[in-house]
Shikimate kinase
Amino acid sequence: MKNIVLIGFMGVGKGTLARAMAGKTDIYAIDTDDLIESLTNMKIKKIFKKKGEEYFRKLEQKTADWLASSVQNSIISTGGGFYKVKNLKSIGTIVYLQADFDWIYERITKSKNAKKKIKKRPLFKSYKDAKKLYEQRVPEYKSVADIIINVEDKNIDELIEEITSKIKF
Ligand SMILES: Nc1ncnc2c1ncn2[C@@H]1O[C@H](COP(=O)(O)OP(=O)(O)OP(=O)(O)O)[C@@H](O)[C@H]1O
Ligand SMILES: O=C(O)C1=C[C@@H](O)[C@@H](O)[C@H](O)C1
């Protein structure tokens, strides 16, 4: 099986969906932010603060190279900007999880857990800046996607069903 690569904006639910799919399908879920944290033994927030965004993007490319050469049969959730790596398509089938910015923001502000998680995301500091980044990225997410799935108001089981019906395993 080719890897499934979930892309999309911060907080849309990539990691949550990947882990739920793993639990149901017996395939490994891997997260690129987690890989970078374990490679560097540093939290994302700290990497941005101490080394800067450019350095973080280099780590994303290094991670993409490793995934392309060494990982198969997995579901990979990615950081919100990971889609920019040069060899994205060679990693697997690209699934863009799509939702309106205000819907994402609303869910985050309502969920304590999500709010805490987003605090760790340096690029989600302000509503205004995050929205601007979102608007800039939407056409780019769309153009690299093999499959687009709208996640608004669907539960995890419905999302898994939609993905598995659209991808040949
Ligand atoms: N289907 C869902 N139903 C309810 N809450 C959800 C769902 N999916 C995600 N969340 C909430 O949204 C938060 C962000 O989800 P998740 O960490 O999966 O997003 P992400 O796209 O992987 O984000 P990032 O790119 O920043 O790592 C989670 O902490 C969780 O509380
Ligand atoms: O959207 C982004 O560029 C980012 C999203 C997060 O998942 C992390 O990868 C990091 O905070 C950068």
Summary: DSSP finds nine helices and five strands in the chain. The longest strand covers residues 92-98. Residues 3-154 form a domain with the Rossmann fold fold (CATH 3.40.50.300).
